[in-house]
Amino acid sequence: MSARKPSSGPARESATRESRAPSGGQRLYIASAILSLVGLVDALYLTIKHLTGQGVQCTVTMGCEEVLTSSYATVGGLPLAAFGAAAYFTVFSLATLALYRYHVARTLLFYLVAAMTLASLFLIYVQAFVIGKWCQFCLLSAAVTFCLMAIALAGRFFRAR
Amino acid sequence: MRRYLPFAIIGAVLALAVASVLVFTRSAKNSNGSQFSTPPPATSTSENSSPTTNQTASGASPYAPLGASAPGAQPPHVRGAANAKITLEEFGDYQCPPCRALFSELKKIESEYHDRLRLIFRHYPITEKHKHALVAAHAAEAAGLQNKYWEMHDRLYETQTDWAEADNAREIFIKYARELGLDVERFVRDLDNNDADVRIAADRQRAQALGVLGTPTLFVNGRQLKPEAMTPEMMRKAIDFMLDPRNQ
Fold first, then answer.
1. CB–CB of A48 and B21 under 8 A?
2. What is the pTM for the complete model shown?
3. Chain B: nearest CA to A90, how far in angstroms?
4. What local confidence, expressed as pLDDT, does residue B58 receive?
5. Stretch A127-150: mean pLDDT, rounded?
6. ipTM above 0.90, yes or no
7. Across-strand partners of B119?
8. Of the residues A159, B41, B192, B206, which has the maximum number of CB atoms within 10 A of its CB?
9. Chain B positions in Cβ-Cβ contact with residue A89 (cut-off 8 Å)
10. How many CB atoms lie within 10 A of CB A10?
């Protein structure tokens, strides 16, 4: 991950628009970081279950077994959930850095969340039309990603103002 | 100090994530047999106390007492050596795609383990979802009456995609019967045989007694594999676990 120096020092932050408002923008990065932790826990849970071969109990939907044992559940022999965990950890890292005014992290965060949204849309399509079953943990992950996308868009809105 | 704070937070989360994966995977590996959702037969005596001798001919690996009240269709459809140390009991539906995937893997496993393993197939057609599952089970039973149960069983899974959505599945099964060299007239008569319904109902009753919730469900020497453990490597691991003398 690219760790960059803050683009403005603490002494000068008070002169910026962002620091004047304890802003919506900063709150959004905090929300992103917290949401990404939810996604990270969800993805780690599925990764551990996959690696240990333990069953995943579905309590809301009725298709965890079919979805999580389908060919779409692994990529190159690795559980897809592990890639999700890596993505959520990266989102957490970027949101944290963005909160501390690493501007490059803000841009990266937006594009990463956009990519994750596309991936989530594809996986929802797979569940709906290819497998025909729903996995609640996958839906939770998708919901987290969509919320992150909404927050990222809101962040752009705040910055544009 | 503040400039290092975000990196400290990120590092802490990373360390926590890695540690949780290591701890949980290691603890699962330390508890051998974690791929099973049912306890070992020796401890699963809450439901029944007497073994069901008619479910298995294997003296080395007797079935769990679980499900003793519902032995399933008798005699069961068994493929493999009578004295095999491993008995796989599958509850399947001929129209369910995961069952077809399991069928392909089980064929490989059967050839790998050869006379150390035998397979029992039990019907659990999910008729609410699979419109041809029941007639497919009937077709297998009808072929079984002419001693070609497993040939039809294999054919049904191998060609599942050909008939699963077809309108004339029954005619397709009759065609299979002809190709397998069966007496077609008798096969057609037996397709509507009530005895098949009785056998299917008995298997279904056993499935319910064992707590089977869906298909495919696989038992290895009476212990149910967790759904997530039905991957090629985990199935082999479960079989190897059962073959280990320490676990018999």
1. yes
2. 0.52
3. 9
4. 36
5. 93
6. no
7. B79, B88
8. B206
9. 13-14, 17
10. 11
